[in-house]
Specification:
Layout lengths: L2 H4 L16 H12 L2 H14 L5 H17 L3 H14 L3 H17 L3 H14 L4 H12 L17 H15 L3 H14 L7 H16 L10
Helix pairs in contact: 2-3, 3-4, 4-5, 4-6, 5-6, 6-7, 7-8, 8-11, 9-10, 10-11
Length: 224
């Protein structure tokens, strides 16, 4: 599965683009929407020189949009630092969710899988209903190489029942119903021991559902 398929590019940076604040921010937004990312970057930087340091909302938005412009220019390391600046100013949950989600996507695009997973987890802790973050998290987990001594390729071939069960569970996971997929596999394992051939798949499902179970009790921001 390619990055372009799961990053959901049209949804990435829309949320804060309407909140640049001053004239430079609005000009940057217009340039960004036209695809003039270098010019948008300059406008956001100029806006940051004029905004009051105590204006957390405007600073968070300008830094966020600057990071978006850097991302679009494939300057991922600079974008990551700038997303961090936006997080430092962000005071409301919605802004933090958006910044973590986009910082995760930036990390994934840069090939930093662990950082991407960390930020997607935080997104889901802050907003358990964020389907795009859950989907992207599951895609990244699927790309994890099997642990030594564990693989989806079993020592003994799974039964026809086990193979059918996994296809059904994969269909549920594709619909982002991870809890139902995990329950289906666990119930199948109780009936057919060869379902254990798919232990890595079950482990990934368990990791994702664990995020949902812990979401209400863990809303702290992850820090690098």
């Amino acid at each position: 599965m390619t990055i372009a398929r799961w990053l959901l590019i049209p949804l990435l940076f829309g949320g804060l683009l309407s909140h640049g604040g001053d004239a430079d921010g609005r000009r940057g937004n217009t340039l960004y929407e036209r695809g003039a990312f270098a010019e948008a970057e300059q406008a956001y930087r100029e806006g940051l020189t004029r905004v009051d340091a105590s204006d957390s909302t405007r600073n968070a938005a300008l830094y966020h949009n600057l990071a978006a412009a850097l991302y679009q220019q494939e300057r991922y390391a600079e974008a990551d630092e700038t997303f961090q600046n936006a997080r430092d100013y962000a005071t409301d949950v919605d802004a933090r969710v958006r910044i973590h989600y986009n910082q995760a996507t930036n990390a994934a695009r840069a090939g930093n899988r662990e950082a991407a997973l960390r930020h997607y987890r935080t997104t889901l802790r802050l907003d358990p209903l964020h389907d795009d973050a859950r989907h992207n998290y599951e895609v990244l987990m699927r790309q994890q190489p099997p642990a030594p001594g564990r693989a989806d390729t079993p020592d003994v071939d799974p039964s026809d029942y086990a193979q059918r069960l996994k296809r059904r569970a994969e269909a549920l996971a594709a619909q982002r119903d991870y809890s139902a997929a995990l329950m289906l596999m666990q119930e199948g394992l109780a009936q057919d021991s060869t379902v254990a051939a798919y232990q890595d798949f079950m482990g990934r499902l368990n990791t994702i559902t664990a995020i949902d179970r812990n979401a209400e009790n863990d809303v702290q921001l992850d820090r690098p």
